[in-house]
Amino acid sequence: MQEPVGKQSMTEERPQPTGDSYEELSSDSIEKNTDRILADEADKETNSVDHSLQQAEEQNQLHDNVENNEMVNRNPSESDSDSSSGSDSDSELGKYFYPKFEELEAARKPEPGMKFQTLEDANGFYSTYALLTGFVAKRNSNYRRQKYHIECNRSGKPTPARNPNRKRKINSFERTNCQAKVIVKLTKGQWEFATVRNEHNHPLSPNPSLARFFLSQKHMSSEEKSFLKVLQQSKIPPNKILRIFRRMRSSFGNISFKKQDPVSSVRSSSENIPSKKKDPISLQCTEQRKTENSDVESALKHLKELELRNPSFFYIKQTDEDNIVRSIFWTDARSRMDYNIFGDFISVDTTYTTNRHNLPVATITGINNHGRTLLLGCALLRDGRAETFKWMFQTLLQVLGGKIPGSIITNQDEPLGRAIAEVLPQVRLRFWKCDVMGKAHERIAAFMAARGNIKLELDSLVDNSLTEMEFEEGWSSLIERYDASKNEYLQFMWRIRKIWAPVYFRQDFYPFAESLGRGEGMNIVLFRNYVLPKDRIEKFIERYEEIQKTTLKTDDEDRRQAGTVPSCFSLQPIEKHSSTIYTRQIFLKVQRELLHSTAFDVHVVKKGSVYRLERVFNYENPEFDRNAFEVFVDPVSNTFICQCAKFARDRLLCCHIFRLFTQLGINEIPGQYIVPRWTDKFKEEKAKQYTEKCLEKADSTARYEMLMSKMADLSKKICSDGTKCNAFMLEFDSIQEKLLATDGENPRDNDNCMEIITTS
């Protein structure tokens, strides 16, 4: 019997996620295939085309059965008249899917909420994803031309067992009742992915060589493109087109399809191209880089305009040896102050890429005293290498005052993690659990589907473990029970368990990390439903402006609510007490814990020190799906510690301790459990300290932000009273005249300015 994965390194120290094996296993399958397709190795250029085409021809023999039946042609002139009806005619024999270059570059895993201008765009996106992932998509049911199912071609009831003596048809394939699909709905004039299921119950067969061939269209000559178009219009299967070009390559000389840099292109083609002529492929690559940089320059121009409109906004750019802008980081004075106040925890998300060049975009977010998301800064990056991420974090520290965050949570990305370890070695790093588990479900979907309830048990183990020992022993038992010790991806997840499994972060401040919307990464929440990958960078910057404006409006609403008394659902004194302590949104979270506390009974294990809380009623969305918790009490120090460790994670008491308070007659939250960070006064006091600090440094941008904030607060208070407004305007005009009169005097004479304001 094989030893379970977990037993091989049960006591190992926290691993550092480095090395090729990490990168290979942690990358998303789409990203990995596309990166591999786009990668150029200058020392292998000479024979790369022959090798790629030969490899593709061998691989495509395995794909003929699927392609000959299922690939859909996007050419409208050759579509059936009912092509918009979603009928099965889309998968007729002789019709094929030919992806566009832009679709291959922008390919990524489909997600709910993605929007497209046309149904063909949605179908093309999913079919391209299918091509890279290793299955074939077909479009099915139509509901009043407003709802379509795009499914895996292996959906449907399994094919009955055939007569072994009967010869199998060449074009046949096995149906497995696969549930992978997307449901596309017409919503407000756009086609939206309403439902997405990415798990397959059968092995996938990605074909990077075929995708590489389609990507090569951008670097083909006009004659080659015309010939390719003729073959596609003649309904030639893609794999056969690939073979035709391979034969042309062997018969007519150097027909190169691979993207090259100018040096390697000239070197590899020197035998066939006269030395005085420039390599057309080199020119194409140079032109591509010019186009890419023109998009960055256009974004830079937009940022400069934004800086002129808003003095508190600023950006920093990174240039290469040719003084060409490659990366940009931007933020504003308000975000700097927010980071100074709420920078104890930040989230960094690099899962989004914008524009046709697939430039990564990173967002740095935090959480304010209302539990709301703050957008602290954004970065447009040249690539996803560790060196680029290092520049981003070094810039972040420089721009945001040098404050070191206490904890960081990011998407699963090895270069990103390596950069944080080098620039911020003292910071606690964690990967989003949902990102790690989501990639696992996708990478080993067929493996899990063949093993019954392993997926459900794995999810439950990760979500509900209260101790490291419980998690590790449960993992070992699960691996052994399902004979999964040889699965490489599960082995990989085990090796890096201490940087993603929630049980290892029970004592670290990651507020509301498992809440809806945060586990998926903030880019999804903030940008993906508003900015499409094919949009230009300016669209992303415009969305950034919208987010900041929305944040200001939300802050105003929170300030107005601070002057009102929230309603209580019970007559418990502790609920009334908490309503006077916390901000409104945090009080709602505490109120929910108080409500959930009524679902538990208290049992004394050891009087005065240990109590057992047992759930007697079910309620929606419990943090842990288990029925009993123990609370440990120290009467001397008046401390309460629950097994769920919510106070350590969120700095809020849990429903179990609240229930014990009721049992023990404690009617107010003890002072040591009132964390100032979640109170109304916290931001006010910290903001005052920050502005005083900035005034000492003569930071004009911070002064601008401070003045604007004070003016806004005062305006809200007096705007409804015409008499006060008129009196304020008279005083303001008087102060303004006196300040302007001192322009010719010593600008450092602050005492003189203060005297003017005082006498006014």
TrEMBL record:
Chain's role: Putative transcription activator involved in regulating light control of development.
Official protein name in the record: Protein FAR1-RELATED SEQUENCE
Organism: Aegilops tauschii subsp. strangulata (Goatgrass)
GO molecular function, one term: zinc ion binding
Keywords from the UniProt entry: Metal-binding, Nucleus, Zinc, Zinc-finger
One GO cellular component, as annotated: nucleus
Domain named SWIM-type: residues: 629-665
Subcellular location, record wording: Nucleus
Entry similarity comment: Belongs to the FHY3/FAR1 family.
Highest taxon in the source lineage: Eukaryota
Main location, first listed in the record: nucleus
